[in-house]
Amino acid sequence: MKFEGHTDKDSADGASDGAGHLTRRAIFQSGAALAGAHTPLMAHAQATPTAAPVAAEPPPQRMQVQLQINGQPHRLEVDTRTSLLDALRENLHMTGSKKGCDHGQCGACTVLIEGRRTNACLTLAVMHDGQSVTTIEGLAQGDTLHPIQQAFLDHDGFQCGYCTPGQICSAAGMLAEVKLGMPSHVTRDLAAGAVTLTEAEIRERMSGNLCRCSAYPNIVAAIKDVSGARS
Question: Facing residues of 141 across strands?
Fold first, then answer.
């Protein structure tokens, strides 16, 4: 059976429907041919993207800083990106403060800035121009150890000793906070003024200082000893 206008050639290649109209097959074939013709041009366009201009990186900025460290003035010029910990260790060669995690999580770098506990790895040296810094090297008075240092010895509050400088500086700062009546997360009576330095208070206040040797019981005992709350 043949329709009007239908030719054998049309039916053979499927180009028309016999009424002089293009079939769907012919349209798809034409589209594929056009896409194939454009593929080399598209590939060329993707292979040669236009390079974005790269801004020149500005040179490091340096700044003069004066710090009062352990009672002694120190003037140094540092890159403004230098942490206080690196300024102490690398610029001033005061290596008592340890670099542990370098992310403020272990407390090994704890120093006292204006008497307050601070992770030296999380603060920039230029932020403390003109301020006083106390490190582990500045706690002892000559050959006389700071009471916290002596208590750590008496109670064996250290094992490998890497975290010990930060633990001792943090303990000294923490005891000063208690004397000022500063509450902690576990202080029950915020209106009492005076803080009773229980073991829970000590553990909470020292929770920012980690000890991989797990000398915590001895550290707590040392701090209780110095605070007058004997274990």
Answer: 144
